[in-house]
Amino acid sequence: MQPIKNLDPGPNALSGSTDNGDASGVFGENDGSGNGVAGFSKDGIGVRGDSANGFAAVHGHGAKNGMWGFTISSTDSGVFGQNDGSGNGVSAFGGGNQGVGIFAQSSAKGSRGTNTIAGFFDGDVVVSGDVQLTGADCAENFDVSGTETILPGTVMVINTEGSLQPSDQAYDKKVAGVVSGAGDYRPAIVLDKQRSQASRLPVALMGKVCCKVDAQYGGIEVGDLLTTSATPGYAMKADDPFRAFGAVIGKALRPLKEGQGLIPILIALQ
């Protein structure tokens, strides 16, 4: 079939109309891998739909993607929705069988230390249901001093300049938390993510985190309180309650009888 060209100076290359409520003004079908209906515009809109009766202006239904949008623009959107009334610019509904209303995936899915973003909201977000997070701790980004590489699980203290550095003395009341991201745990929330000239690391302030511990100062049992040790960046069992006050990092969730290791702890700064 040859393409239909508009030789009329009117606005539409192809138009269709029907009074049948079960039929379509314009219908396209492709039994191969191409497009049932495709639209292209050099400067305007490739495909446009308008509705005056409250139904969808454009409706997509498919076994894979009901509607798909793609763009290489750094400022525009693959799919864009706007509402000037009180409704929704874009609505999504997850049906039965655990369907998902909106799914967004970063191109770097499963990678660590990347800056790719699956979703971005410029404004307030209201959630009427639960927010389910797979991460284990609530962390906050802090400036860190020094040039050495600081690994996740390191115990950090506040220095005189207000930035953080690895701990290096026992029962240090300046303890701030543990660098998040060690072992199998990842932060669920990271606060204060902003640009800075200094190096910044997420430090777990509450929740579960894997922490470097040293058992040479005493074997660690589940439930033991932990504090800073003389081993740089490592925690130890807090067996002196008077010195531990104000220097406790958290509670051990796994034992370590001897040597050094990485164990999960429950952050409880006190």
Protein architecture, described:
- The protein has 270 residues and is mainly beta.
- It has a domain at 137-267: Virus Head Decoration Protein, Chain: A.
- The chain is 1% helix and 23% strand.
- The protein is built from one helix and ten strands.
- The protein has one helix at 241-244, and strands spanning 137-144, 155-158, 164-166, 175-179, 187-191, 199-214, 225-228, 235-237, 248-252, 260-267.
- Strands 1, 2, 3, 4, 5, 6, 7, 8, 9 and 10 form a ten-stranded mixed beta sheet that branches.
- The N and C termini lie far apart (77 Å).
- The model has no long low-confidence stretch (mean pLDDT 83).
Q: Helical region count?
A: 1
Q: What would the CATH topology of the domain at 137-267 be?
A: Virus Head Decoration Protein, Chain: A
CATH class type of the domain at 137-267: Mainly Beta
DSSP, total strands: 10
Structural category is: mainly beta
Q: Can you tell me the CATH architecture of the domain at 137-267?
A: Beta Barrel
Query: Helical content, roughly?
Result: under 10%
Average pLDDT level: 83
Low-confidence parts lasting 5 or more residues at pLDDT below 50? none
Largest sheet: 10 strands, mixed
Dominant shape: elongated
Please indicate the percent range of residues in DSSP E strands (runs of 2 or more).
Answer: 15-25%
Our measurement of the CA-to-CA distance between the termini, rounded to an integer number of angstroms, reads 77 Å
Which value, in Å, is the CA radius of gyration? 29 Å
**Quick one: CATH superfamily of the domain at 137-267?**
Head decoration protein D
Secondary-structure element order, N to C? EEEEEEEEHEE
